[in-house]
Amino acid sequence: MLKSALIVGAGGIVGGNLAERLIEDGWTVHGLARRPTFRQPAIKPIAADLTKAEETATALKGLDVSHVFISAWSRQATEAENVLVNGGMVRNLMDAIGAAPSLKHVALVTGLKHYLGPFEAYGAGAVPETPFREEQGRQEVANFYYTQEDEVFAAAKREGFGWSVHRPHTIIGYAVGNAMNMGVTLAVHAEICRETGTPFAFPGSATQWNGLTDITDARLLARHLEWAATSDAGRDQDFNVVNGDIFRWKWLWPRIAAYFGVEPAPFSGEIRPLEQAMADAAPIWRRIAERHDLVEPDVARLASWWHTDADLGRPMEVVTDMTKSRKAGFLDYQSTPDSFYDLFARLREERIIPDHG
């Protein structure tokens, strides 16, 4: 079987980890981005702005791949704009590559906002009971995830390839410059607390502090994507994908604090947004970076305060069911504490955060 992939967003937290996985497994990997700079030299770069149909068609003309993986989006001011822009990006991509002679499968990565609703309407609709299951379907609100799905479904019906939709929870994994990256954000938060002697304070809601939740390791998501895209059981299916364990933040938070040698602050019961607490973090991080010879002195390239606030500030429980994947044959499991510890170790190895010995 031809194993040639086009990864849209190959420099991000999902696409980058997927590229590592596929290259290790012998795939030929093409990476599409507006400004393609990838950490894996084996990726064949393609530069294109997916919001521009003609540019996308020109960039992908003559490319023949067996699989397409879509793991990129463009954040807009409103969900209506998200629907318009991100739906259009997928449509332009499908118009350009959907008829490739060898194309067998297109995989789309979305997330649990499929059930929760978009950022501007978190929990505004009738949020289904947890754990979230694929059979619960869509919310009655505008959501660019749904529009992206519909574009893939329409192209699959037209061209005859298979599809899969993957809905991870919060993704923990190695990436730099990513807009939705809680693991790196918490590492930077902890290092700034260490530098300033400030207690490591949980920024989120009492519901998230006390309730059960789960996450998705980017490496497990990469395995899930490869499995669904090459398995009969994954064809034309939507799947949740999380690590397989559950935890409470009040249990995990002091363990993260201990890893960084900082004191966890007692939980006050009130939301303390990082976007406010870290408003003056830029010069502090630059000082840390200069002293430890780190590769990225710009804290805005590392920390996504807004996304971590949105994630940890949720007023509802978020737990995800993996039964559908298990029954279809995907049995992989990942320890959540190890997801964080492995990421932190790699951040130190790559000189993204300090190694204090």
Automatic annotation (TrEMBL):
Upper taxonomic lineage: Bacteria, Pseudomonadati, Pseudomonadota, Alphaproteobacteria, Rhodospirillales
Species: Skermanella stibiiresistens SB22
Annotated protein name in UniProt: NAD dependent epimerase/dehydratase
SUPFAM superfamilies in UniProt: NAD(P)-binding Rossmann-fold domains (SSF51735)
Pfam family, one: PRISE
Stretches assigned to the PRISE-like Rossmann-fold domain: 64-354
